[in-house]
Specification:
Blueprint (H helix, E strand, L loop, with lengths): L1 E6 L4 H5 L5 H6 L4 E8 L3 H8 L4 E6 L6 H12 L4 H12 L5 H14 L3 H13 L4 H10 L3 E4 L8 H10 L3 E4 L19 E4 L2 H11 L6 E3 L17 H8 L6 E6 L10 H13 L6 E6 L17 E3 L17 H13 L2 E4 L4 H7 L4 E4 L15 H5 L1 H7 L4 E4 L2 H13 L5 H12 L6 H15 L4
Parallel strand pairs: 1-2, 1-4, 2-3, 4-5, 5-6, 6-7, 8-9, 8-11, 9-10, 11-12, 12-13
């Protein structure tokens, strides 16, 4: 019997990969067993949900980088240039209050050194020279895996050390990443696996162009958690869904998917803008906004409780801290699916909620103003349109309306409430490029690729 190591170093992995049935599919293969590597403190929570006769839960304590490991990580982020990196560095000054001089120096060096393949390969060689940790040596010796699958290849304190241990031992490796913005955000990948199993064509292009991953070692399988969108049994009647949130089912529903005030400082003002537009009669149909706070970030929810036309979603700022958090469990995912399904329009600044909306065929509005506030550019909502590489590409399809003022916001809402098929061709462009597969079989493709690679070195 062969053993596959699968990493789950972050609570969202349960939602993005595991709860769609990946472990049960693999465990159903009589010649395989799975060892799920999780943070030591989370072993019991994972075991209560995922442990079975052929799924073992193994804890990994925090892997702290050595001095050389920190230096190599710094180089991986320095020698990498995207507009998203520029955004991150400028926020170091404007949001984290760091001295502007070292920020500008890092930006200059990034532009000078960005995407030099020889430098990338040198850093990756250096990573392999860093000594392995005793706990990983013991895990590999105990279970003797034939394949290591890392779910978040940009996680340098969990997945990367595990992949490196596999590489040193000559064990086959495969990897994915948690989300579609990861390959333009965190620096170049510190270790290229034997195969990348990715969610969409955009990620595949970025892996090849920015990180030097050979095209023939990349396979697009889709988003496993999008499989839930095909589960019709999850969908509640509109009246039942609306009753839970105290919404009149006869009114139109505008779902706002928040990014969190860490990214969008004045995001709560968008709810106030919607309230005022409704009171003024600028929106020509009766409507309610559901404000869904991002579970990983705080949002100004208290002040919204007094708004008449805005309802707070039930998540209420729960954080993605542990695998058992309400923000990561199946009940919340089912609620989110219903929120999308029953909405008439979805609104966000630049959140992945926009992609979720397109998968379900919903009209999408991208807000690019900060309510009534006027922050500096690097703290403004506008910067997402210019410095989020994935969102720039997303918006090029023409499937979402960018709005730069309350007046444009009202106009876009009225347009889509009057004709939900408007911009449908652009949304189909987004779906093909950024969702790629939305047929409910992404988990099956992922599992099949892992099994095929284990057998043939080629995940067909």
């Amino acid at each position: 019997m062969k053993t596959i190591f699968i990493t789950s170093g972050e609570p969202v992995i349960a939602r993005f990969f595991l709860r769609s049935g990946l472990l049960s599919i693999l465990a159903g293969n009589p010649s395989l067993r799975v060892v799920l590597l999780v943070p030591e403190a989370e072993v019991d929570k994972y075991a209560s949900e995922f442990k079975s006769e052929k799924v073992i839960i193994a804890g990994v304590s925090k892997i702290l980088p050595t001095f050389w490991g920190r230096l190599l990580l710094f180089m991986s982020r320095l020698a990498f240039r995207t507009v998203t990196n520029t955004h991150t560095r400028m926020r170091e000054h404007y949001f984290l209050k760091k001295n502007i001089i070292p920020v500008l120096v890092k930006e200059f060096l990034s532009r000078l050194l960005g995407h030099i393949r020889i430098l990338q390969n040198l850093v990756r060689w250096g990573e392999l020279q860093v000594a392995s940790t005793p706990q990983l040596s013991k895990l590999f010796a105990k279970y003797q895996p034939s394949l290591v699958y890392a779910t978040v290849i940009v996680n340098d304190q969990f997945d990367i050390p595990i992949l490196l241990e596999a590489k040193r031992r000559g064990i086959k490796t495969a990897a994915s990443t948690r989300n579609w913005d990861n390959f333009t955000t965190f620096g170049f990948i510190l270790m290229l696996p034997d195969f990348l199993l990715l969610q969409n064509e955009f990620l595949a292009e970025q892996a090849e162009r920015l990180h030097g991953m050979p095209k023939d070692r990349i396979k697009v399988v889709g988003f496993p958690h999008f499989d839930w969108y095909k589960e019709q049994k999850l969908i509640e009647p509109r009246e039942v869904f609306c009753r839970k949130l105290g919404i009149d089912p006869a009114k139109k529903i505008v779902l706002y998917g928040a990014m969190g005030d860490w990214l969008f400082l004045h995001e709560g003002e968008i709810a106030k803008v919607f309230e005022e537009l409704m009171e003024q009669g600028s929106i020509n149909q009766k409507a309610t906004m559901i404000f869904r706070a991002h579970p990983a970030f705080l949002s100004p929810l208290e002040r919204m409780k007094k708004l008449k036309h805005v309802v707070l979603d039930k998540v209420f700022g729960q954080r993605f801290d542990t695998v058992g958090d309400p923000a990561t469990d199946q009940a919340d995912l089912a609620h989110f699916v219903n929120s999308l399904y029953h909405s008439d329009i979805v609104v966000t600044a630049a959140s992945t909620v926009g992609l979720d909306a397109v998968v379900l065929g919903k009209p999408l509005i991208s807000v690019s103003f900060d309510g009534k506030s006027k922050p500096v550019y690097w703290l403004s909502c506008e910067r997402f349109q210019d410095h989020f590489a994935h969102w720039i590409d997303f918006m090029k399809c023409g499937g979402a309306r960018r709005v730069n003022s309350p007046e444009e916001f009202a106009s876009a809402i009225n347009l889509y409430l009057g004709d939900r098929e408007k911009d449908a061709a652009g949304r189909e462009c987004i779906r093909k490029r950024f969702a790629t597969f939305s047929d409910g079989k992404s988990t099956e493709r992922l599992a099949a690729a892992l099994v095929s690679f284990l057998k043939n070195n080629d995940p067909k």
